[in-house]
Design brief:
Elements: H1 11-26, H2 32-63, H3 65-69, H4 74-82
Helix pairs in contact: 1-2, 2-4
Length: 85
């Protein structure tokens, strides 16, 4: 069963944008000012991803608590996105 697209950007789209940002920042022709802008956009997107992953985890913990017990601690998700701050 496929979910209807509500106009909200999917996490897959956000991750794809992060990959694009990374490629652009790594390109020496991007320039410093543009790289800084891209970096700031990337931080905002990473924050959105973190929030969505934590929300998804909470939902699954309610649906299937036994499965959730096998997952890494929430701190590992936070560390993934907070390592640059």
């Amino acid at each position: 069963m496929a979910a209807a697209h509500s106009g909200k950007t999917t996490i897959e789209e956000l991750i794809s944008r992060l990959e694009d940002i990374t490629r652009n920042i790594e390109n020496p022709d991007t320039g410093l000012e543009n790289s800084i802008s891209l970096y700031e956009e990337g931080l905002a997107i990473a924050g959105q991803c973190k929030k969505r992953l934590l929300e998804a985890r909470k939902k699954i913990e309610v649906i299937n608590p036994d499965l959730a017990k096998t997952w890494p601690e929430v701190g590992r998700i936070k560390d993934l996105f907070d390592s640059e701050s």
